[in-house]
Amino acid sequence: xxxxAAVVPAAGAARRMGAAGDKLYLPLAGRPVLAHTLRALQAAxxxxxxxxxxxxxxxxxxxxxxxxxxxxxxxxxxLAVAGGATRQESVCRGLQAAAGxxxxxxxxxxxxxxxxxxxxxxxxxxxxxxCAVAGLPLKDTVKEVDDGGRVVATPDRRRLWAVQTxxxxxxxxxxxxxRQAARDGFDGTDDAVLVERLGMEVYVxxxxxxxxxxxxxxxxxxxxxxxxxxxxxx
Length: 234
Known about the structure:
Blueprint: E1 2-10, E2 27-28, E3 31-32, H1 33-42, E4 49-56, H2 61-67, E5 78-82, H3 87-96, E6 101-106, H4 116-127, E7 131-137, E8 144-145, E9 151-153, E10 161-170, H5 171-184, H6 191-196, E11 202-206, H7 217-228
Parallel strand pairs: 1-4, 1-6, 4-5, 7-11
Antiparallel strand pairs: 2-3, 6-10, 7-10, 8-9
């Protein structure tokens, strides 16, 4: 049995990039953002990752082959599949191509600065029997506000974490979670919340501040600076 299959949702609309276009195909240190993400996963083959599934926009399969594939390694194999209208639907379609794995690792295509150390922490936690998500404790005070901008509560930030990816689960657990969410008409912002809805425990492992999600042109500039300061060497 293959140990780990990675599913990479990469079909987002990237509206906050504005005129810059699809963020996953924008150049980052001379290569597309998505190529960095997939190569980081390929470089961790010795951690047990045996297959990578990129769920791209349905109309972008040819573009993936032309612009991303040339930057990838032959192994572990990267399979491109047509994603869906939402992140959740894209992951669900990716899970179909992850059949045969013991665990599935979900990682956002827009997080290209994924470190080997973070991958190892998440995979090791899964092997220890825990559903694992990367996360960072919040540094700022958080306010809950109503529709008019009025503060209604100040949660205790000591109990609040900003969740990242990777997120790692037993494959059958995540498949069940997605099926239940589809039956309920529930659309979550990450995969962990779907697993939580099954009543299962999910644990946070220390994330990485450099593991930023590229959402705006500013994020792309920050990623460029981080890579220039000793990031990806390929």
